[in-house]
Amino acid sequence: METIKRKLPVFFIILTLTLSIVLMIPGMLFAQEDEATEEEIVEPEPEELIFDTKLPKLQAKDGETFTFNFDVAYKAGDEPFGIEEGKSEKTFDITVDYPAGWIAAVASGSTEAPAINLKFNSRESLRLMAIPLVQQEPGEYELKATFKSAVEGDTLEGSIEFTAVITATYEISLTTKTGRLSTELTSGKDNHYKLILENKSSKSVENISLSSTEPEGWQVSFDKEKIESIEAGEKIEIDVTINPPEKTIAGDYMMTFRASSENSNDNIELRVTVETPTIWGIVGIGIIVVVIIGVAVIFARLGRR
C-alpha cells in the first residue's frame, strides 16, 4: 500500500501533463491555420505610372527648341521589368501644359503622340519637345506632360514636369542708314554720313563705344562716341563726320566702323570715293588748257622754222 501511495503523485503529474498537451494541440493547429490563412490573403500591388529623366532642366537661347528625353513605365510594385502573363497593354491619353507663347508636345520617335499604348511592366522612351513661338524674356518656364488612362472608369494617372531655361542673348548690329556700303566724299570739307546701331539682344546692352579705321590724315568723329545703354530691339542713329584732307587724291578708299561692348561687337567696311572740290576741278581744267596752249605755241614756232 505504501508503494501505491508513493506512485499516485507521479501518476497524477503524468496525467496532468498529458491532458495539458492534448488540450494545447487544437490551439496550435488553429493558430497554424490562421497564419496560413493570413499568408494566403495578399493584397495586389496598385498599378502606377513611373517616370524617369536624367535632364529635367535644359538651357537654350530664345527661339531654339528644347528636347527633354524621358521614360515612362506602367507597372505595379517593385517587380523587375518584363511582360507578365495575363496582363494586357493599356491606352493613355497625353496632355501637355506649357506657357503662353509656346508650343509643346510629346513625341515617340519622330511622331507626335497625343496618346500611347503601354504594355504592363514595360518601359517606353519618349520625348517632350517645346519651342517659344514669340520672343521670351530670359528666365525659367515650366512644362508638364500628363498621362491619363483612356479606359472608362480607370483613374490611373501620372505626370512629369520639366523646366526650360531661356538664357540671355547679346547681339548688336551696325549698319548704314541707306543700306549701301559705299558713298562719295569731297576732300577738304566735312562730309556727314549716317550709321544705325541696333540692339538685337534679348536684353539691354551697356557701355557701347564707337570707333573707326580710316586713311592716314583723315579726320573722323561721331556725334555719339559712347552709348551708355541701348534697350533690346532699340535702334539709334549715329551721325559720322568724315573730312579727307584737301590734297587727297581722287579715288576709292576703305574705311571701317566698329561698335564694341563687353557682350557683343560688330563692324562694317565702307568704300569711299573721294572727289576733289569744284574749284580744284576748275584749276585742273585751267592747267590742262594752259598745257595744251603751250604745246600748240611750241609746235607753231617750230613749224615756222
Model description:
The protein is of the alpha+beta class. It has two domains: 47-167, Immunoglobulin-like; 172-280, Immunoglobulin-like (Sandwich), CATH 2.60.40.10. The chain is 22% helix and 47% strand. The chain is built from two helices and 19 strands. A hairpin with a 4-residue loop joins strand 18 and strand 19 (265-275).
Architecture blueprint of SSEs:
Elements: H1 2-40, E1 47-52, E2 57-61, E3 66-76, E4 90-97, E5 102-108, E6 111-112, E7 115-118, E8 122-132, E9 139-149, E10 157-167, E11 172-176, E12 182-186, E13 191-199, E14 205-213, E15 219-222, E16 226-230, E17 235-243, E18 251-260, E19 265-275, H2 278-304
Low-confidence stretches: none
H/E element order: HEEEEEEEEEEEEEEEEEEEH
Largest sheet: 5 strands, antiparallel
As a percent range, the share of strand residues is over 45%
CATH superfamily of the largest domain: Immunoglobulins
Number of domains: 2
List keywords for this structure.
single chain; 305 residues; alpha+beta; Immunoglobulin-like; 2 domains; 5-stranded antiparallel sheet; 5-stranded mixed sheet; 19 strands; 47% strand
In short:
The chain is of the alpha+beta class.
